[in-house]
Design a protein that fits this description.
The protein is an alpha/beta fold. About 40% of the residues lie in helices and about 15% in strands. Helix 20 packs antiparallel against helix 21. The chain is globular. The termini are far apart.
């Protein structure tokens, strides 16, 4: 019997090749995971549920612990390994670890295909099972071209045209593969491939968590904590959408018994994330692959040959550190990257014809060539569009782009003249105005507004429509978002008894997905800044007169029986049972630009004023301050004057009521001449307040509330009339709305005619 050890996803292609060579050969194929079951116990879903129900861990934390729990030894000198060992003993005691399979493997020799020689986990399993092994390696070496492009669209349609040329010359479509590791390419492959008259099979890279149906179910379940009610409401809202049945199956298959709604919600969210959206699969098409590939005598187009993907840069996302993983004979992130590189080199030595391409930019930003370019002897060359182009539709798009360059920059290359002679388009003659009247809302719709939705609608109504109505946004956890969530969480917890900043920080950061550079900055720079900010916040709170402090406080105000405004205030403080201040913590460089409130921008703090003045608990308090508390410094070097209680960058920025007696209750240090905690607040030598932009009257606070309420009413009216024009706002000649917009390919804004500019008089006054 012939035994092969190979990754599971190449078993079928391996078996197909073996049967082609020898129809009757007795062969058995195992994966690395199959062998592990003969060496280590099995952890199943029941084990995970035990940690959720009995230990109170979140789904991600529990999964993180279970990654390495089988491999640790009792090392009391290492708290992490000791903790995992004790947890494993507890699971073992409760019969939650399934014993390894009996060693009934009836072979003592195997060939290894598709696994790297550097994979010491695999060799450990083989040695434990007394299996002799040898690696089957490719020895064919090639030199291929590498096409580089400015942007991803150019790369994709060029490659698709090259594929069409191969097919036109008689190459079987089954002998052509597209290999890509960045799922960003899927959108463009789906967009362009049909116009070249052939079909592709994409590996699903999208999880159900990113779908509108799953997000809607999660929202409904959060609101009513009842699975069946949420499913009924979801069915009513999704109608005949076939994806409803998929959501229904996922939910019904993952109901938990005897758990609270918080655990159940966390479980649903992670199961949605782990379940890939089902893609239709076709026969006699070009297959798109991203993982292990075992083929011969094929044409393989390798897209996006960029750093971070070839080889893949793995994240250090284990509970144990890289060094700790090595100590228990486990692969760490560096090992996995090195193994991936050797696997790629084996693939590119195989007996196939490879075509490499790379774009310098994609939607994630600038890209850099893979570091293994020299190892596989790639030669960079400028791609030249063939005289034969196999998609008239795409050729028109290319020509439109070339016409843009010609129109704006008078740039005319060889391709411009080549395409101009064979195609013509009505360039710049179309109307990009959104004329379709979407029936999204009506007078009976329930609408929930917030300061972020008001800001987005004010910047550009069409951008709001695409983001909030069509829901084109694909939520991604970014470094900025992770930093903001981490900072807010630490500030909220900092007043807890026995709060240990370093312990809390390290445990939370360990669970965040970060690039190595981001993790380094966070732990070596930002950590100390957040710690300093918390010290400053606690110091400020010591000086309040008779305070009551509310953190992450949610408020809701009904404009009408159908429309509500919601907000979550980072820090709300009542002073001496008379006054109230609202503080918003910011990790970015944000200011309170009150000059633009009337334009629907920078409305967060005024919205807090409106919400508190209409809340039963706070409506009788006098609003005394609206502030932004910047947590991080803009400068690496932070100087603090000797007479300052906290660094100036950590002081409150915003608007304070111009009343000396009230300010004394917020910050008594004002009597020494200058506020220690509020920027721009000081007194003259005669003891009176010094006038400045940061001081306002109580009437000004009332005007803020009236202004934002009117803005919300106008927005509510516009939404119910389904008004979503292309109308981006310009601030001081800078177009923030379009600058950070993800939908430029959709709207084709004409800024001169459709931009909403502030007048010169307004700019000068401000």
């Amino acid at each position: 019997m012939k035994v092969i050890i190979a990754p599971k996803n190449i078993h079928l292609s391996l078996l197909t090749k073996i049967r082609k060579d020898d129809l009757f050969l007795d062969v058995k194929i195992y994966s690395k995971e199959d062998l592990r079951r003969y060496v280590y116990p099995l952890i199943n879903e029941e084990t995970l549920l035990y940690l959720l129900k009995n230990k109170g861990y979140s789904y991600e934390v529990a999964k993180g612990y279970l990654q390495d729990i089988l491999y640790v030894t009792n090392d009391s000198s290492n708290p992490k390994k000791h903790f995992l060992y004790q947890l494993r003993e507890e699971l073992k005691k409760n019969d939650l670890l399934i014993d390894p399979l009996n060693n009934d493997l009836r072979f003592d020799e195997a060939e290894i295909i598709g696994y790297s020689r550097d994979d010491f986990e695999l060799t450990t399993y083989l040695n434990n099972l007394n299996i002799r092994y040898k690696y089957i390696s490719n020895d064919i070496s090639h030199s291929f071209e590498l096409w580089d492009f400015e942007k991803i669209e150019d790369e994709v349609y060029f490659v698709l045209n090259e594929i069409a040329a191969l097919i036109d010359k008689g190459t079987s479509i089954k002998d052509i593969y597209i290999y890509r590791r960045n799922s960003v390419y899927d959108y463009y492959l789906n967009k362009f491939a049909p116009s070249f008259c052939y079909q592709i099979n994409l590996d699903s890279s999208e999880s159900y968590y990113s779908t509108g149906g799953a997000k809607l179910f999660i929202k409904l379940y959060k609101e009513n904590n009842d699975i069946d009610v949420s499913l009924e409401q979801l069915k009513e809202m999704m109608g005949d959408d076939p994806q409803y049945l998929d959501i229904l199956d996922i939910v019904n298959n993952n109901r938990l018994e005897d758990v609270n709604s918080g655990i159940q919600l966390d479980y649903f969210i992670n199961k949605f994330k782990e379940t890939k959206v089902k893609n239709v699969r076709y026969d006699n098409v070009i297959n798109v692959a991203s993982g292990d590939l075992y083929i011969e005598n094929k044409n393989v187009f390798v897209l996006g040959f960029a750093q971070g993907y070839y080889p893949k840069m793995y994240k250090d996302d284990h509970y144990l550190s890289d060094d700790e993983l090595h100590s228990i004979n486990r692969l760490n992130s560096k090992d996995k990257t090195r193994i991936d590189e050797s696997s790629l080199l084996e693939l590119f030595k195989s007996n196939n014809t490879f075509y490499f391409s790379f774009s310098k930019r994609n939607k994630d930003g600038e890209c850099y060539l893979s570091p293994i370019v020299k190892k596989i002897k790639l030669v960079e060359s400028k791609p030249i569009i063939r005289d034969e182009f196999y998609s008239g539709e795409v050729l028109k798009l290319i020509y439109a782009n070339l016409k843009d360059l010609e129109n704006f920059y008078r740039e005319r290359g060889e391709e411009y003249y080549k395409i101009r002679d064979v195609i013509s388009i009505d360039y710049n003659s179309y109307s990009n105005t959104y004329t379709y009247k979407a029936k999204v809302y009506d007078s009976n719709s329930k609408i929930e507004l917030s300061t972020s939705s008001l800001d987005l609608y004010s910047r550009c109504p069409f951008q709001y429509y695409l983001s909030k109505v069509v829901k084109l946004d694909d939520f991604e956890t970014t470094y900025a978002l992770s930093l903001g969530n981490l900072t807010h969480d630490l500030i909220e917890r900092c007043r807890d008894e026995n709060f240990d900043f370093d312990k809390e920080f390290d445990s939370k950061v360990a669970l965040i997905e970060l690039k190595p550079s981001e993790r380094y900055i966070l732990t070596h720079n930002v950590k100390n800044q957040i710690k300093e900010a918390i010290k400053a916040i606690k110091k400020r709170e010591e000086y309040y007169t008779n305070p009551h402090i509310y953190n992450e406080y949610s408020l809701n105000y009904f404009l009408s029986d159908k429309t509500s405004i919601t907000g979550r205030i980072d820090n709300l403080v009542t002073i001496n049972n008379e006054y109230l201040i609202c503080i918003d913590y910011k990790t970015g460089n944000t200011k309170f630009e009150d000059a633009y409130i009337k334009n629907g921008l920078y409305t967060q703090l005024p919205t807090y004023g409106l919400l508190t003045s209409n809340d039963k608990k706070f409506k009788d308090y006098v609003l005394a301050g609206l502030y932004i508390n910047n947590v991080l410094t803009k400068s690496i070097k932070v100087e603090q004057e000797d007479d300052e209680l906290i660094p100036s960058y950590l002081k409150l920025n915003g608007k304070t009521i111009g009343n000396f007696d009230v300010i004394k209750k917020i910050d008594p240090t004002i009597i020494d001449g200058k506020s220690s905690f509020i920027n721009g607040v000081s007194i003259k030598t005669d003891g009176s307040l010094r006038n400045g932009a940061s001081l306002v009257s109580d009437l000004a606070f009332e005007e803020y509330k009236i202004t934002v309420k009117e803005l919300y009413l106008n927005m509510d009216n516009n939404l119910r009339n389904n008004n979503f024009p292309i109308n981006p706002y310009f601030i001081n000649d800078r177009n923030y709305a379009c600058e950070y917009c993800n939908y430029k390919d959709v709207c084709f804004v004409r800024l001169k005619n459709q931009g909403n500019f502030l007048s010169k008089e307004e700019n000068e006054d401000e």
